[in-house]
Design goal:
With 162 residues, the chain is mostly helical. The chain has eight helices and two strands. Helix 1 runs antiparallel to helix 5, helix 1 (2-20) runs parallel beside helix 7 and helix 2 (39-49) packs antiparallel against helix 7 (121-147). It has helices at 2-20, 39-49, 52-57, 64-74, 83-99, 103-108, 121-147, 154-158; strands spanning 110-112, 118-120. It has a single domain, classed as dinb family like domain (Four Helix Bundle (Hemerythrin (Met), subunit A), Up-down Bundle).
């Protein structure tokens, strides 16, 4: 199970990294609506949401929100020019984190979400890292479709990682 979860997160990050190459210069501030994230804000969020909760659960911290805010403040700011490097670093971080987790912990370790509910680590990884990456990747994909002259389609969203 551990390798399935690791590989799922890494695939999402590779898809996002590739989508970042499809953002036309000068369109990174595009937002579909005033109260929605811009393309660059989506990339910035996606650069940490895949590992933020894993990093918290792997730390000795007890309060998620302050810990995650510290991670956010310390994160390098994503630009179109450095996105590939930042997502490569995030992929390396996923590997480092999963190297410290056992299959038994995936199945049995109880963790707490920022909103107070608890779950097993494996379920919590699906409910946070994987769902957040997938959901916000879709929003990024749709925004790029709006601003780009280049044709992107379903394979760019689900399977084209290179």
């Amino acid at each position: 199970m551990k390798e399935i979860l690791r590989n799922s997160i890494i695939k999402e990050l590779k898809l996002i990294k590739r989508l970042a190459t499809k953002v036309p210069a000068g369109t990174e501030d595009y937002r579909p609506k005033e109260n929605m994230r811009s393309i660059i804000e989506l990339l910035q969020y996606l650069s940490g949401c895949g590992t933020g909760m894993l990093r918290f659960w792997n730390s000795n911290e007890t309060e998620a929100r302050p810990y995650l805010m510290k991670l956010r403040e310390a994160a390098p700011k994503v630009t179109l020019e450095n996105a590939a490097e930042i997502f490569d670093n995030e992929i390396a971080r996923v590997n480092e984190l999963f190297d410290t987790i056992t299959d038994e912990e995936i199945a049995t370790k109880e963790v707490m979400y920022p909103w107070g509910a608890t779950d097993t680590l494996g379920t919590a990884i699906i409910e946070t890292s994987i769902k957040w990456l997938t959901g916000y990747k879709m929003q990024l994909f749709l925004a790029i479709k709006v601003v780009s002259e280049e044709e992107i389609s379903t394979p760019d969203l689900w399977r084209k990682t290179e």
